[in-house]
Amino acid sequence: MLVTLRETGDRTGVFEEFITFTTDEESSGTRLRVLNGDTMTAKYTDRTLPAPAALDNDGVFTVEVEELFASSLIGSTGPPLERAILSEPILVNQDGLQIEQIEVGQQVLIQSEVRNDQNKRQEFAYIVQVKDSDGVTISMSWTSGQLFAKDSIITAQSWIAENVGEYEIEVFVWESVDNPAPLSPVGSIRVNVAPS
Asked: Is 63 a member of any domain?
């Protein structure tokens, strides 16, 4: 959107314009349609700086242009680590029933509820990392999706333990796999895998 600023008086050097924000009307003139959580960026380009006294090799004036930027968050998205609320992860079987003990070779699902309390849609990635007793990552999997405003989803990732032992399962909710900005604190559980 291009807005013309008007000088507040003769040679004051102060230029102003009022911009109105709306959530339900289309952008037009000095009215800008925004949603809660949007980032608004204003750019001002000054082309009035004087040209240098000398010409360049081609006989053309070099005009200096200065650009200024300012950004602001519209509304409120809540604290950064509360944009998605993650329930404590649990282990469930293929029927969705919670289980406490797992055995080598048994497929389990690491399940959590992810809730969006914001007034806007939120993209997310649900990432599950399994580490052995030495802290070595032995499995990592994820799924991506989006949550509509005030919506929730139950999501899970599959894991099959190949060895007996104690494991730590960590669950992350990020903006995306490519953008590791956390939306929620990390959830974790410890499990013991028994012989089959």
From this structure: yes
Q: What is the pTM of this model?
A: 0.62
Distance CA 104, CA 107 (A): 9
Q: What is the pLDDT of residues 85-118, one digit of tens each?
A: 999 999 999 999 999 899 999 999 999 999 998 8
- Bridge partner residues of 147 (DSSP): 122
Instruction: Give 5-52 pLDDT, tens digit per residue.
Output: 888 998 888 888 888 888 888 888 888 888 766 777 888 777 665 555
Tell me the C-alpha distance between 50 and 67, whole Å.
Answer: 15
CA distance 35 to 2: 19
Which residue range forms the structural domain that includes residue 60?
A: 6-73
CA-CA distance, 130 to 137, in Å (whole number)? 6
**Neighbouring C-beta atoms of residue 95, cutoff 10 Å:** 7
Report the domain count for the chain: 2
Q: Which residues pair with 190 in a beta bridge?
A: 168
CA distance 190 to 32: 50
- Sort strands 107-115 and 90-92 into parallel, antiparallel or unpaired: antiparallel
